[in-house]
Design goal:
Order of helices and strands: HHEEEHEEHEEHEEHEEE
Largest sheet: 9 strands, antiparallel
Number of strands: 12
Strand content: 25-35%
Structural class: alpha+beta
Length: about 375
């Protein structure tokens, strides 16, 4: 019996331990369920946040795409505007180049002989004064206007303006190679021409000295120039002023006497002795040039016409030119006296027009 009691107590003890373990396991299970529930809630929250973030990212992406599309549209509009402005600028440059080309003329004026037709009587005391320290010249320049003549065309200038205007109103048939061919008569529209005055003042007291040595200090050079051009035996005279430019190696010498500059300038090459050695310098008159009254003009020649669509013929240019001149000299054809004519069968040449009492003549 004692053994049975002990065994019963043993199993009772084991049951209590099992109940305790069961209770502990149930508590753990409850804790685990709570943790699981909280974990599920946290996961749910995280998933919800992920969905919201994905949705926000999607909305942001759509917004960025709309902004990108808007920027691309504006960029395309700007490119089209830039292209339009570029085309406009290119056209303006083209117009500017065309106008500049029309207004261009040679800077160098051609050499021209000048004939003095009158000499004023002056008193002796006036010659010694500054009144005659300069010689003034004034030239009126009218630039010739170029006109390009193409093959199969002719330019005719009539003596009378009325004849040229009548020719433009009529139909013209020429006898060429035993056939009558029609040619067209058009007015000659010319590019812009130029008129301006050139004033030239030649000093009787100043000269320009060039090709001076470059190894002499500036102040010393002025003194040496004054001493060198003071020598009367070489045509010089008393020097009033010296302006020296070391960079260009030139100087402007002003004499007190009006005739000294002429005498020195006639030598062209002048001996220059700065030290013991001697060198040569060039002397030229001191000339002031100025341009005034620049005018541009354009229009249609009143006495010259352009014949177009002249067919090629077996005869040479000179014979065809004679035929054209004979035809347009006849009053029965509405013509009159031809002052000048130029026919070109092929290629191209430039004819020049000049102003002559507001009418334009072929040159």
């Amino acid at each position: 019996m004692d053994e049975l009691k002990k065994e019963l107590e043993h199993w009772q003890e084991q049951c209590r331990k099992a109940d305790n373990e069961k209770t502990e396991l149930l508590l753990r299970k409850l804790d685990a369920d709570d943790f699981k529930k909280k974990a599920l809630e946290e996961v749910t929250k995280l998933m919800s946040k992920d969905e919201e973030k994905d949705s926000e990212n999607h909305r942001q992406k759509e917004c960025w795409q709309r902004e990108k599309d808007e920027l691309n549209r504006k960029n395309a509009e700007l490119k089209r505007e830039i292209q339009k402005l570029g085309d406009k600028l290119e056209k303006e440059y083209s117009d500017y180049a065309e106008i500049s080309q029309e207004l261009k003329f040679e800077k160098e004026l051609p050499e021209k002989r000048v004939k003095f037709t009158k000499l004023e009587n002056v008193e002796e005391e006036d010659i010694e004064s500054d009144m005659f320290s300069k010689m003034d010249c004034q030239f009126l320049v009218a630039a010739k206007i170029p006109f390009r003549l193409q093959g199969g065309e002719a330019l005719l200038t009539f003596e009378e303006e009325e004849v040229a205007q009548n020719i433009l109103k009529q139909r013209h048939l020429l006898n060429m190679d035993h056939n009558r061919v029609e040619v067209k008569a058009d007015p000659v529209a010319l590019n812009a021409g130029l008129k301006f005055e050139v004033n030239v003042k030649i000093s009787k007291k100043k000269i320009i000295v060039s090709h001076l040595p470059d190894d002499i200090p500036e102040e010393s050079m002025r003194d040496k120039l004054e001493l060198n051009f003071y020598k009367s035996r070489l045509g010089g005279g008393e020097v009033e002023d010296v302006k020296y430019d070391k960079q260009s190696r030139t100087a402007v010498i002003t004499f007190l006497e009006a005739g000294a500059a002429d005498r020195v300038a006639k030598r062209k090459v002048y001996p220059f002795v700065p030290n013991t050695s001697c060198s040569e310098v060039f002397v030229t008159p001191y000339i002031e040039r100025s341009l005034h009254k620049l005018q541009t003009y354009s229009g249609i020649s009143r006495r010259t016409i352009l014949l177009r669509e002249i067919p090629a013929a077996k005869e040479d240019e000179e014979n065809i030119q004679d035929m054209i001149e004979i035809h347009f000299q006849k009053p029965s054809n509405g013509g009159g006296e031809v002052e000048s004519i130029k026919y070109l069968s092929k290629g191209s040449k430039v004819a020049y027009f000049e102003d002559d009492e507001m009418s334009l003549n072929i040159v």
